[in-house]
Amino acid sequence: MERLWNRNYCKVMTANFALFFAFYLLTPLLPLYLHETFGATKDVIGLVLSGYTITALLFRPFSGYFVDSFPRKTVLLIAYSAFAIFFAGYLAASTLLLFAIVRTLHGGPFGALTVANSTVAIDVLPSSRRNEGIGYYGLSNNLAMAISPTFAIFVYSQTHNFELLFWLAFAIATFGLAVDATVKLENKQIINNKRTISLDRFFLKRGWLLGADMVFFGFCFGVMSNYLAIYGKQVLGMTGGTGTWFMLCSIGLILSRLQGGKALRQGRLTHNAAEGMLISLVGYTLFVACPNMIGYYGSAIMIGLGNGHLWPAFQNMMISMAHHNERGTANSTILISWDVGMGLGILMGGVIAEVFGYTSAFWTVAAVNATGVALYFLKAQNFFLERQLS
Predict the structure, then answer these.
(1) How far apart are CA 289 and CA 95, in angstroms?
(2) Cα–Cα distance measured from residue 299 to residue 42, given in angstroms and rounded to the nearest whole number
(3) What is the separation of C-alpha 28 from the centre of its chain, rounded to a whole number of angstroms?
(4) Largest alpha-carbon pair distance within the chain?
(5) Cα dihedral angle (152, 157, 162, 166), rounded to 10 degrees?
(6) Spatial distance between the Cα atoms of 388 and 129, rounded to a whole number of angstroms
(7) How far apart are CA 21 and CA 126, in angstroms?
(8) CB–CB of 117/19 below 8 Å?
(9) What is the dihedral sign for C-alpha 72, 15, 138, 151?
(10) How many CB atoms lie within 10 A of CB 378?
């Protein structure tokens, strides 16, 4: 059996860990920074921070095109360099407007980098271990999500120095760039067999139904991750616990990646996807049906376990429907689908909560998740089996 943990794969995983560690280092504290430094109100904070997500989403389809149309390592290093430099831009932003501009623009290289790095990870994996390797690759994201916010809050509690956190994020991102610079890639021929730039250069049309199904699952996590804290406070009377919820969710993600590795190695993609979405459905339902500590924390582990099975299975299925010169497009397609779902969840979750209350918003989440599960079993699973490439 070919070796999974080769040197280049370990380097790409390390760089991915650094990328998400730098990202999550600032995420929990930026609202506080904007409020304390610039006196920004809640609605302005939301507006400033949402720009990052919108720009990342806009850049993703073009990132897939560039990764597939130009030398991948060159695209990777340009995206990583820009991603690192923008952390220094936060230090230079002396007004709220300047900060908003830097934060919004920063989403571009982040969107491009996540596509480029994951595509390079696929390239350095032996083909016989690709399914399994993509599953383990996600561990680097999950570990960063589990450790980085806690580390950031600890550093801030000891120093009360936001500038230190910006410098740390810049240094960690620069380290990731340096690691990626040492990755060795084979020189593969760039195939430009399409004379005109068409939709399938930016979105893998062959996998459209899988992308549509992923929108449902992204919607659910968008509502959960953004309205979790306020639901806990207003409905459950909990003033803390959000950090613990995300920590348990990360543990679930990590455990599922480790446990699901064998199924991915055996190519049981549809099995892993089905298992993940059903576990997630139980988690989302438990969260709203049991408004107590058991439901609250139990749902975190279940949703983590479910998403940890679901994500690599859907990503592998999408890649299995793409030719070599479409891998970047396949990666960007699944990320775009998730981002669209997340965005709709954030937007519609707030509207539903405002009109009907947070309990109704989370019952909507359970219903949307159930719809995604039904779509998978009725249509999407056979859709994939009929279109996968040998």
Answers:
(1) 45
(2) 28
(3) 16
(4) 60
(5) -20
(6) 17
(7) 27
(8) yes
(9) negative
(10) 10
DSSP label of 3: -
3-state secondary structure of 107: helix
Count CB-CB contacts under 10 A for residue 341. Answer: 25
d(Cα 199, Cα 119) in Å, to the nearest integer? 19
As a whole number of angstroms, the distance between CA 69 and CA 151 comes to: 39
Q: Which amino acid is at 30?
A: L
CB 188 within 8 A of CB 88: no
Closest residue by Cα to residue 276 from 361, 376, 204: 376
Amino acid at 75: V
Tokens representing 278 are 């059903």
Alpha helices in the chain (DSSP H): 7-26, 30-38, 42-69, 72-92, 96-124, 130-159, 162-181, 208-234, 242-265, 269-289, 293-320, 327-356, 358-375, 381-387
Q: If you count them, how many residues does the chain have?
A: 390
Question: Distance between CA 312 and CA 342 in Å, rounded?
Answer: 18
Cα separation, 168 vs 158, whole angstroms: 15
Q: Which two tokens stand for residue 329?
A: 């497009």
Cα 181 to chain centroid, rounded: 23
Residuewise pLDDT in 10s, the chain (390 residues) = 678 789 999 999 999 999 999 998 888 788 788 888 998 886 787 778 778 888 988 888 888 888 888 899 999 999 999 999 999 999 999 999 999 999 999 999 999 999 999 999 988 988 888 878 887 888 888 788 778 877 887 888 889 899 999 999 999 999 999 999 999 987 765 555 454 555 556 778 889 999 999 999 999 988 887 778 778 877 888 766 777 888 888 889 888 888 777 777 777 889 999 999 999 999 999 999 999 999 999 999 999 999 989 988 998 899 899 887 788 888 888 988 988 888 788 778 878 887 888 899 999 999 999 999 999 999 999 999 999 886
Alpha-carbon dihedral sign for residues 202, 181, 89, 35: positive
pTM of the model: 0.78
CA distance 29 to 156: 9
